[in-house]
């Protein structure tokens, strides 16, 4: 923990807990903050209050306690974030923490008059009656904590409706097949019917669609068999949430490619690509590649090697079952993939002697190496663009679209979701590099709760997500699989990966020192009986947390709830069985038991382990449509160039038609080449421009186009910090609070904040004190501005230009106004740069003339370079027509 705190301090970053704690400390120690917030918000509504932590309680109570009108809404049975500090007891104690107050006449003072009143909201307008009955049975043990908590009842249009089904299957794969069969049955219902077989309450005529169904899992490891079983029935599935998304095959291929591009040691990621259904490299070729990697690691890269085996036939790229040494090659290949024996990535880039490989294997690996080299040229692009380029190069966009019977939009939903993740990381990350993004993906894959809830897409597909990610969402039909538990393993309820007892986990604060100690188990002594009692209390608390999660899962269903479990899981010899939650649903009196497998015999073995699964290696493209896509492409290519004699046999009209097809195809191919970055791409100016963009347009239109097309963040610089500090001092001097927007931070092509100077303009010996002293000696020290930090938006031509003027003075001897921009760097050295930066003053001058309603001739403009004590008034400032012409200019060459 100390290292974590030190690392955050060194990087000047905060996590969510730090932010809440700092906010609570500020609010509790500075009453004026609460007074200001109460003046802004006369009535406060706190939603989902059961998910607040103790720090949030302190914050809210400091801001709005003491009689301010506050209402909290929440359900203690849905408090599922205890693992991150949430305390359901906050809702129970709300009436005491925010007591009702009465005004004392005649002075209007207030005084507490007792606990706040409580109103019960017991009608659910989303759930049917039978679903709520099942949920009530699940949450029955939770109601002892809040005795007055009512059971939810359905709205009149959903009373006496709903279906609850349960099943216990033999194996986890049987459960996945059962879920898929039930999904298919729901989709086959008559049009106009909701999942419970009755008409929709809103009388819609459509039947149940895939997007009306969600499968909510406790763990992401459940996704793979469920997704496979549902897709096997031709039903589209979308995985929600980054953690589960990384298990989707096409997304995993993109991530593996990104890892290979970034890390030469990512042999495991390269092995996924090599052995996949696209390249299908066999064990002997992998052995040859591993030997090449070891040779390069020993510095023997230039030494020619004779082939160590007869090259296999080209049809299998290294796989010939008839050869006797296949088992040895397979064992050696597995060893190469699991041991640190050199970099397979480097070996792929330098394959060495072609005779060491099969002809087909060498050709495929050579093609993959060339493909990766082309992709490395795109590593500097924004992450979303890089991910999309990898997707295109891998052919995944075509592959998912080629799935038989699949809606193209739904088929690529997972790829689109991953691109959204990359785009969001680029916008939020402090260091949006490929390495940082890959580290983020690794953390998301390892963390069971995930790093975010994810966004449910709008495609017409079954949604597959965790229960945590489903909080606040609703579907007509919901499945909750994996309700299985055994003596040594359990799925739902899940067992915490680390102990939740502070006596066993050094990462936890002792419960007695926490603000929510009243809601936590108490350790009454260190004797064996006290420790056992404390352990039992913590276990009961863990089970209650899982029970709340199950209650949330059940109440996501509007009309149909399916719960299931199984006896045997994959790759485990220990037996499971129905969890307490599944047994409660079965005994609720409303559930239909669709299937219930008998308990296996005590000496029974896991049937999933009784047989050894077999598969071809190299992988056949079954289920992955590479070969079909290649054949289709070959047919299209052949059709694009018909034989000359065939053309001669066509009529004149048909020949014109073929020529038109050829022209259209050429145009489409040219457009595709532009989108791939293979040619010059014209970049239109945005409809809204900052003043900094105008300066860039005058300085270098091509550079501005590159910034518009591929915006890149700029690291803070020393000169930028000095300029910002000087502007802040001026604001304090003039008594004006600065409002900073993103366009104020940097001018394009400089390391300065707007108004801060030019590159290299910093004076190492000039600190803030010297700049302040110089300003106080300047001609501007005795003049007082009429306005400072003036934001504006003005129309120049057909573009809206926005900016912020540093200061406007109205005491010019010549009359009119002086618009001034403060600079902390040196004046520009070249005439071209002086012309470019003068555009900033021209825009300020035009904007102030419009704001003040005066002719442009009455507004002057100047830069004041503080360190040089120099006021510069450009004599040839552009007027509105010239600025419009600047915006309307088009670069002579499109920008790549």
Textual characterization of the structure:
The structure is a single chain. With 896 residues, the chain is of the alpha/beta class. It is built from 33 helices and 19 strands. It is globular, with a radius of gyration of 34 Å.
Gyration radius from CA atoms, angstroms: 34 Å
- As a percent range, the share of strand residues is 5-15%
Helix content percent band: 40-55%
Unreliable segments (pLDDT under 50, ≥5 consecutive)?
104-108, 304-324, 737-766, 891-896
- Biggest sheet, strands in spatial order? 9-10-8-11-12-7-13
Number of strands: 19
Average pLDDT, rounded to a whole number, is: 80
The secondary structure category is alpha/beta
Report how far the terminal alpha carbons are from each other: 48 Å
Tell me the overall shape. globular
Q: Tally the helices.
A: 33
Largest pleated sheet: 7 strands, parallel
Describe the structure concisely for a colleague.
The chain is α/β, with parallel strands linked by helices and 896 residues long.
Defining key terms:
alpha/beta; 896 residues; 12% strand; 7-stranded parallel sheet
Write the layout of secondary structure elements.
Elements (H helix, E strand, L loop, with lengths): L1 H10 L4 H14 L1 H10 L3 E3 L7 H11 L5 E3 L16 H4 L1 H4 L2 E5 L4 E6 L8 E2 L4 H10 L14 E2 L8 E9 H16 L25 E5 L5 H10 L4 E3 L2 H4 L3 H14 L4 H9 L7 H15 L28 H13 L5 H6 L9 H18 L6 H12 L1 H6 L6 H4 L1 H16 L5 H13 L15 E5 L8 E6 L47 H27 L2 E12 L11 H7 L4 E6 L10 H4 L15 H15 L3 H5 L3 H24 L12 E3 H9 L1 H9 L8 H17 L33 H9 L10 E10 L2 E11 L7 E7 L7 H22 L6 E7 L4 E3 L7 H9 L8
Parallel strand pairs: 1-2, 5-6, 7-12, 7-13, 8-10, 8-11, 9-10, 11-12, 14-16, 17-18
Antiparallel strand pairs: 3-4, 15-16, 16-17, 18-19
Helix pairs in contact: 2-3, 2-4, 7-22, 8-9, 11-12, 11-16, 11-17, 13-14, 17-20, 28-29, 28-32
């Amino acid at each position: 923990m100390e290292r974590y705190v030190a690392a955050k301090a060194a990087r000047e970053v905060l996590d969510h807990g730090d932010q809440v704690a700092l906010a609570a400390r500020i609010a509790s120690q500075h009453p004026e903050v609460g007074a200001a917030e109460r003046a802004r918000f006369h009535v406060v509504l706190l939603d989902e209050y059961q998910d607040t932590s103790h720090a949030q309680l302190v914050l809210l109570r400091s801001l709005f306690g003491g009689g301010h009108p506050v209402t909290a809404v929440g359900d203690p049975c849905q408090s599922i974030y205890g693992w991150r500090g949430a305390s359901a007891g906050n809702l129970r104690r709300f009436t005491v923490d925010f007591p009702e107050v009465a005004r004392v006449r005649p002075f209007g003072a207030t005084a507490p008059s007792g606990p706040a009143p409580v109103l019960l909201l017991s009608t659910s307008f989303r759930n049917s009656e039978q679903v709520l009955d099942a949920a009530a049975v699940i949450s029955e043990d939770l109601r002892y904590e809040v005795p007055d908590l009512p059971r939810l009842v359905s709205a009149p249009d959903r009373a006496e409706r709903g279906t609850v089904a349960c099943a216990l299957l033999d194996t986890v794969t049987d459960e996945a097949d059962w879920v898929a069969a039930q999904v298919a049955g729901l989709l086959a219902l008559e049009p106009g019917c909701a999942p419970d077989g009755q008409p929709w309450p809103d009388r819609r005529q459509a039947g149940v669609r895939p997007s009306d169904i969600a499968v909510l899992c406790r763990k992401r490891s459940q996704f793979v068999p469920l997704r496979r079983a549902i897709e096997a029935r031709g039903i589209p599935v979308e995985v929600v949430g980054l953690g589960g998304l990384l298990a989707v095959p096409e997304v995993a291929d993109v991530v593996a490619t990104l890892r290979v591009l970034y890390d030469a040691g990512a042999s495991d990621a390269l092995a996924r690509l090599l052995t996949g259904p696209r390249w299908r490299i066999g064990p002997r070729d992998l052995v040859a590649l591993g030997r090449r990697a070891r040779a390069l690691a020993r510095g023997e890269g230039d030494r020619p090697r004779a082939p160590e085996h007869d090259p296999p036939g080209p049809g299998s790229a290294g796989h010939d079952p008839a050869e006797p040494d296949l088992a040895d090659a397979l064992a050696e290949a597995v060893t190469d993939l699991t041991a640190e024996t050199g970099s397979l990535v480097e070996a792929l880039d330098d394959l060495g002697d072609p005779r060491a490989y099969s002809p087909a294997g060498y050709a495929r690996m050579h093609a993959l190496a060339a493909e990766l080299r082309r992709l490395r040229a795109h590593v500097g692009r924004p992450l979303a663009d890089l991910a999309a380029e990898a997707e295109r190069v891998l052919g995944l966009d075509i592959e998912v679209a080629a799935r038989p019977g699949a809606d193209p939009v739904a088929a690529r939903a997972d790829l689109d979701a991953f691109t959204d993740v990359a785009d969001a990381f680029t916008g939020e990350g402090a260091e949006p590099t490929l390495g940082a993004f890959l580290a983020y993906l690794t953390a998301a894959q390892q963390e069971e709760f995930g790093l975010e809830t994810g966004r449910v897409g709008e495609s017409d597909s079954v949604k597959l997500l965790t229960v945590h990610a489903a909080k606040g969402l609703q579907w007509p039909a919901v499945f909750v699989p994996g309700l299985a538990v055994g003596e040594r393993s359990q799925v739902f309820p899940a067992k915490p990966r680390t102990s939740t007892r502070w006596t066993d986990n050094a990462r936890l604060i002792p419960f007695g020192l926490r603000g929510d100690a009243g809601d936590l188990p108490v350790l009454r002594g260190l004797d064996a009986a006290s420790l056992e009692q404390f352990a039992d209390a913590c276990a009961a608390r863990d089970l209650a947390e899982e029970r709340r999660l199950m209650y949330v899962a059940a109440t996501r269903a509007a009309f149909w709830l399916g719960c299931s479990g199984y006896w045997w899981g994959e790759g485990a010899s220990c037996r499971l069985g129905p969890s307490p939650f599944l047994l409660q649903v079965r005994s609720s009196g409303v559930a239909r038991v669709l299937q219930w497998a008998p308990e296996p015999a005590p000496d029974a073995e896991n049937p999933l382990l009784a047989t050894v699964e077999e598969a071809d290696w190299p992988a056949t493209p079954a289920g992955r449509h590479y070969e079909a896509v290649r054949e289709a492409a070959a047919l299209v290519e052949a059709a694009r160039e018909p034989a000359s004699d065939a053309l001669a046999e066509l009529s004149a009209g048909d020949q014109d038609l073929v020529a038109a097809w050829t022209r259209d195809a050429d145009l489409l191919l040219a457009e595709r080449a532009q989108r791939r970055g293979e040619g010059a791409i014209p970049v239109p100016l945005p409809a809204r421009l900052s003043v900094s963009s105008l300066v860039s347009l005058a300085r270098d239109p091509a550079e501005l186009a590159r910034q518009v097309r591929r915006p890149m963040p700029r690291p803070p610089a020393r000169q930028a910090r000095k300029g910002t500090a000087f502007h802040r001092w001026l604001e304090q001097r003039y008594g004006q609070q600065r409002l900073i927007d993103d366009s104020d931070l940097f001018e394009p092509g400089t390391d300065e904040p707007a108004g801060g100077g030019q590159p290299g303009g910093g004076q190492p010996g000039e600190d803030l004190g010297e700049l302040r002293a110089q300003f106080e000696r300047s001609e501007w020290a005795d003049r007082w501005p009429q306005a400072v930090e003036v934001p504006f938006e003005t129309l120049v031509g057909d573009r809206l230009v926005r900016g912020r003027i540093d200061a406007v003075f109205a005491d010019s001897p010549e009359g009119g106004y002086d618009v001034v921009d403060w600079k902390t760097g040196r004046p520009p050295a070249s005439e071209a740069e002086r012309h470019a930066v003068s555009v900033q003053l021209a825009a300020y001058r035009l904007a102030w003339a419009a704001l003040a309603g005066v002719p442009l001739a009455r507004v002057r403009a100047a830069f004041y370079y503080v360190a040089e004590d120099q006021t510069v008034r450009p004599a040839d400032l552009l007027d509105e027509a010239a600025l419009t012409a600047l915006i309307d200019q088009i670069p002579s060459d499109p920008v790549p």
